[in-house]
């Protein structure tokens, strides 16, 4: 997502405070409103994250966080593991965070790609940030180190959070590029629900999950191993089709069974329409617009079509 101008003054949280005292930034409603309005006024971009999401509900908690892991997911994308200080911080699979960086007068908007279970068990969330010239992304790629301290606040209306008594649903996830991030969170959450079923724990009974994921080439298909590991763990429940639009090198033997050279087609999506199926779409605006419109034209109820645009 895009970014906006805002400062969190005095964000200084020691590692000890993060780990042992649960130090966090709890801002009042008026302070949050002031931060948002200030961000919009300072913004110079119409596609600014804070401006575009100004009307979106956010949680009140702004939690301090510490970078405890980092990796290159592709030539242009870096993932971060964040240790979350506030024990009351929570999110739903598919949501994003406002990302506050001390000394950087711009707020990032990054989708969480980990499952809620990781936060519950280890107090961590994972983000994956594409390189751009926006200050938060530049900071992540060029200045962020282990033990760097930031703050995060959850927001977003794009999520999958079924309750135990709800009807069983199939999921179709349609991702373009870095739009895989919130859908990976949903996929990982679905896998956690399947594990609960396998262990005969009481909880939501989920149907099948199909992921359609398109990128420029195989090096830009993020989290390939994680996705295929889930497909292999639940072969009767999780399936994926991967697409590359500008592949110039040979495709590995491991990936070849899953790869199609070209774009995701309307027919492939249409074949998965049923009254029990929910659709989640995340990618560039033309892609999300195309598939959401096609689903509507094929009489899928609007409440079964969920989409998020990445700019």
UniProtKB/TrEMBL annotation:
Gene Ontology molecular function, alphabetical: oxidoreductase activity
Keyword Nucleus: no
Domain of life: Eukaryota
Gene3D superfamilies, per the entry: Nucleotide-binding domain of ferredoxin-NADP reductase (FNR) module (3.40.50.80), Translation factors (2.40.30.10)
UniProtKB keywords: NAD, Oxidoreductase
Segments forming domain FAD-binding FR-type: 49-163
Stored PROSITE patterns: FAD_FR
Keyword Cytoplasm attributed: no
InterPro entries from the UniProt entry: FAD-bd_FR_type, FNR_nucleotide-bd, Oxidoreductase_NAD-binding, OxRdtase_FAD/NAD-bd, Riboflavin_synthase-like_b-brl
Gene Ontology CC, one term: mitochondrion
Full protein name: Oxidoreductase NAD-binding domain-containing protein 1
Provenance organism: Callithrix jacchus (White-tufted-ear marmoset)
Encoding gene (name): OXNAD1
């Amino acid at each position: 997502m895009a970014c906006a101008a805002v400062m969190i003054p005095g964000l200084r949280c020691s590692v000890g405070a993060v780990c042992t005292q649960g130090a966090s930034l709890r801002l009042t409603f008026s302070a949050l409103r002031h931060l948002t309005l200030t961000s919009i006024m300072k913004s110079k971009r119409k596609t600014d994250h804070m401006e575009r999401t100004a009307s979106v509900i956010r949680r009140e908690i702004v939690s301090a966080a510490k970078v405890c892991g980092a990796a290159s997911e592709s030539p242009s994308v870096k993932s971060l593991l964040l240790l979350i200080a506030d024990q009351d911080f929570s999110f739903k699979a598919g949501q994003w965070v406002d990302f506050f960086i001390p000394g950087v007068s711009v707020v990032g908007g990054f989708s969480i790609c980990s499952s809620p279970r990781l936060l519950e068990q280890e107090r961590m969330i994972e983000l994956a940030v594409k390189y751009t010239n926006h200050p938060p992304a530049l900071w992540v790629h060029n200045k962020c180190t282990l033990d760097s301290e930031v703050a995060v606040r959850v927001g977003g209306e794009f999520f999958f959070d079924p309750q135990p008594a709800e009807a069983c649903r199939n999921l179709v996830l349609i991702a373009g590029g870095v739009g895989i991030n919130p859908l990976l969170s949903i996929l990982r959450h679905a896998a956690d629900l399947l594990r609960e079923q396998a262990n005969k724990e009481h909880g939501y009974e989920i149907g099948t999950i199909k992921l359609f994921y398109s990128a420029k080439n195989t090096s830009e298909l993020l989290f390939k191993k994680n996705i295929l590991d889930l497909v292999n763990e639940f072969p009767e429940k999780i399936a994926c089709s991967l697409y590359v639009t500008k592949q110039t090198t040979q495709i590995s033997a491991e990936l070849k069974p899953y790869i199609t050279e070209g774009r995701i087609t309307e027919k492939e999506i249409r074949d998965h329409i049923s009254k029990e199926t929910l659709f989640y779409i995340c990618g560039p605006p033309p892609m999300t617009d195309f598939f959401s419109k096609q689903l509507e034209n094929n009489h899928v109820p609007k409440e079964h079509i969920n989409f998020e645009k990445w700019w």
